[in-house]
Amino acid sequence: MPxxxxxxxILTEGFRSSNGRAFLHPLxxxxxxxxxxxxxxxxxxxxxxxxxxxxxxxxxxxxxYKPYWASPRRDEAxxxxxxxxxxxxxxxxxxxxxxxxxxxxxxxxxVTRYIKSQLMRDRSIYSRPLYEHRPHSDYYHRTAGVAxxxxxxxxxxxxxxxxxxxxxxxxxGLANYSLPGPWLMNAYERTGWLPFLALPKFYAxxxxxxxxxxxxxxxxxYPERTxxxxxxxxxxxxxxxxSLPTCKLNRAQYFLEMIDTQVVLSPFGYGEITLKxxxxxxxGGALMKPDMAGIETWxxxxxxxxxxxxFSWDLEDIPDRLDALLPDNTGRIAIARNAQNEYKKTLTGPxxxxxxxxxxASMIHPPAL
Length: 369
Known about the structure:
Elements: E1 7-11, H1 18-29, H2 31-38, E2 41-45, E3 57-61, H3 74-84, E4 91-95, E5 113-116, E6 118-120, H4 135-144, H5 160-164, E7 166-168, H6 181-191, E8 212-215, H7 225-241, H8 251-259, E9 261-265, H9 275-283, E10 286-290, E11 295-297, E12 309-311, H10 318-325, H11 329-347, H12 352-364
Parallel strand pairs: 1-2, 1-3, 3-4, 4-5, 5-7, 8-9, 9-10, 10-12
Antiparallel strand pairs: 6-11
């Protein structure tokens, strides 16, 4: 059995980004449970300090070092891992980048584990360069010839030992994306008052009467063509069939529309998982998005034709998938209900604390030698 890690230090930039908030939200919420039931004591740092590495495990939030990697300060950041952080019992780099494909390879030789919110199930994909660092960007570059003004490729990870260090943490779903959610998280950032970490109390029932058949209200203004491509083509397909409004609404109007919608389309953006996914779980529609079967994440909210409806990355099967889904009230509602139940279980259910704390405890144990 691996030794129990007790003192865990976390270096983080705090609640400054949506991914940072999703990373910290469950740690702060379940901090007492981790200590009481698992013997894990958390201490948070927002700056480097002499005592930072005096712990059993050190978790470093990737957002803390984001300004370093594309600048002359890269060597400085690597030195922190190679020299300072190596003195911790175990060190973990927690990659909060949106996409499965975007990896910071420079820290891999120096950390015990490389923790990422979602990973490609086939780890060998990381051993080749990916266009614009993302599997879907790479896919549209290879299959449709889409190119960006500035070409960027990921750095291949060729050492099997480094690939073996990559493990799944938790995705961005474990925060509050309800109607008042952003306001509450902003309030916590300003005050540090724990009651502002409240979780959603309202879930719209999937079986309620919904007048709007489908919603595809999303932006497509990314500067990178490979990121715009999927969204623009999806809008083109949907406009030809439905010609629905896609302009931005205020948050209250948006939630009212979602509650009245049967099927919500949620394409990839900077990453494969988007906040619209969780807003759909809260409002009870059936989620439809590009196939996630090749992606490993926790909690596992994305199970094909069980918790969401997948469509192929080439988008050619969308009309057939919609034509089958929309008239099938029983099947559509079952998928929406499965997703909502899974979301409630890990977010607000009676077992939520145990599920997260158990996952966290197993994640930070050093791998067996």
